[in-house]
Amino acid sequence: MLRSLRFRLPALFVLGFVIAGVVATLIAVRFFQSYTRTHAAAELRAESAGIVRLYEQQAGVGRISLRNLELPLGGDRVYWVPAVPGASLLAGQLPELPRSAVPFAKLGDSEPPTFDLHVSSGSYLGVGQIVQISGIPVGALVVAKPDAALRSRWVELAWELALAFGIGIPIAVALVIYFSHRIVRPLEALTAAADEVALGHYKIELPERTGGSEVERLAARFDEMTARLAESETLSRNFLMSVSHELRTPLTAIRGHVAALREGVLEDEQSRGRSLEVIAEEALRLERLVGDVLDLAKLDARRFTLLREEVDMRALCERAYANFAEEARVRGIEYDLELGEGAVLVTDGDRVLQIVSNLIANALRWTPEGGRVDLGLNAENGEVTVAVADTGPGIEPDGRERIFRPFWSGDGGGTGLGLTIARELALALGGRLELDSEPGLGSRFVLVLPVKTPGA
Prior knowledge:
alpha+beta
């Protein structure tokens, strides 16, 4: 419970709020203390200056009578500090302080300083003014305010702030719990969904949308990830089924012919020769299948080695065309070769031939009998293009990216690696593979390679 986000998130917010409140209170009290002391000092200076003016105005022959002065002293205390010890101008009407109790030398400054005054009756904040009669300093009047009066002001402020925080904290806690619950609830739902995905269950319900928040974006990415995982598992399952079928078919044929040869069922030389040809063809078919899987693994691991050699693209296209001419003739497919501008490239010829062969094989596979497959070569704008067009069923827009994924096959046959390897090889050679297709009218794959002259 204490480790859960549902508890830790509100606790963190409340702790932050409390710390901020305490810091704000301390700063406010400290500031108010400074303000109160400054304000009290200004009042004391004005009050002491007024008293001194009154005393000096009434000064004359004889003693000054405090009873003749109407002074609004309030709770402040007034002390007399004689210039000469024992010389009391006020005849005991005011309590006297020794000169050592106050900074007497600084009391004549234009702005007399404040000082802490400690007497038997308590602690005070004091301000003094020099009293002069006929231009001669005779002493000083000190007006002092009790520290308790100053302290009561900021203590009252502290209590008011404490009351405000006492009311505000429960409200803040309630709001934090409410909003943290709204944040944590979809995260808990995502956690539960992740647990289901970890168990292999991809059909899950995601948390409700929350108005474009980070949690909603996380949920959207999680949904995409789940869909990809489900598709990947489906593709892997299909791949295993396809590879098993592709492996089983030639192996069954090989085993059957080997058994016939071993048991002597095939007596004439011509039958034995035909069986050996079938065994060789099926073994080559197995080799191609294993080679495709290894090529894909190398491309994914970026451990694919490419050769650099001069390649005549016209001769390469003629070779690729010839490899499939017999299959096209047998199936009654119109099969044409159009060679435009050619070029000699510095690239890996075997891999380029593999790409073109995969494209032609894919086109023949999807083109019905009586259809048409065209192979074309052209060079312009510093690029060589090899185009393979067919009159097959075409590809829907939402499937044009899917067909390049490994192990995906539109009809469930084959391994679904041909186009994947073709595109990855095109990228590895510095080119690209483009697709233009319209459902019902066929597809056109274009291999685009940059022209690099020998020695470049």
